[in-house]
Fold this sequence. Notes:
The protein is α/β, with parallel strands linked by helices. The protein has a domain at 2-31 and 119-286: 3-Layer(aba) Sandwich (Rossmann fold), CATH 3.40.50. The chain has helices at residues 15-28, 43-48, 57-62, 66-72, 106-112, 138-146, 158-177, 197-210, 223-230, 241-259, 276-279; strands at 2-7, 33-37, 73-75, 82-85, 127-131, 149-154, 183-189. It has a 7-stranded mixed β-sheet, sandwiched between helices. A hairpin with a 6-residue loop joins strand 3 (73-75) and strand 4. Helix 1 (15-28) packs across helix 10 and helix 5 (106-112) packs across helix 6. It is globular, with a radius of gyration of 18 Å. The two termini are 33 Å apart.
Amino acid sequence: MRTVAVLSLKGGVGKTTVVLGLASSAMRRGARTLVVDLDPQCNATTTLDPADTTTSLADVLETPHPTVLRSAIAHSGWSEEVDVLVGAEELESLNDPDPDARLLGKLGRALDALGSLLADGQLPYQLVLLDCPPSLGRLTRSALVAADGALLVTEPTLFAVSGVNRAFDAVEETREEHNPALVPLGVVVNRVRPHSYEHQYRIAELRESFGSLIMPVALPDRLAVQQAQGACMPIHQWATPGAREVSLAFNLLLARLLRTGGRGRHQAVSWPEEDDEDADVDSEDVQANG
């Protein structure tokens, strides 16, 4: 099981978009995925459209017991292969900016119990995606303590670049103080317009700061992303040319994440093989340099 925290310390850069796109790509490959909605805005939960639950992630963080966890997880409206640990507005009250270290391990302890929740014949989760809020409080720190990898998200704009730098510092701090297994998986640049001089300038700036951590796959700025989310549909099922372009980018991004060596505490689970369509994708169409 790969557990990935998706974060930035600037709002509006598309963290939830990346989480949903990776979940859509994993679903397409037939891999069981759990989305954990740590953002009090609950946008991931809304788009995934799960059935009603008796508890939420807020209850899990208060009482990380398997029975509480079980009642807070539901199948998404997308597929039974994508589940949601549902978010709640009440999470905001738990987002202490300076939390006690003992509280930071609760999410990880809850996720460690996922295996005990499996019904007969049910496959374990192969991917757990932690959708973090755009702040460095208890919620984001808990995700970094629970994860074995961190994926940073940014836009090619001045303030977003500043936010991803602060997020990287938080990953390094967490690795040193709480979670030595945490690996920075990379920085994905979202909403790129290849012909924008400003975007190309900021991407070059990011490469100077992060080097090979910048994902070679950038996510193009396409209206289809907002359309698919508004319809509560996976991007891979939104039938427009723009959606196909974004979907191919997410396929490449997911493949890159799975190739990145992790030192996580969870046992690895084999993934379904990619089909010929993915193998034939020309990645130059979705490169960060446009």
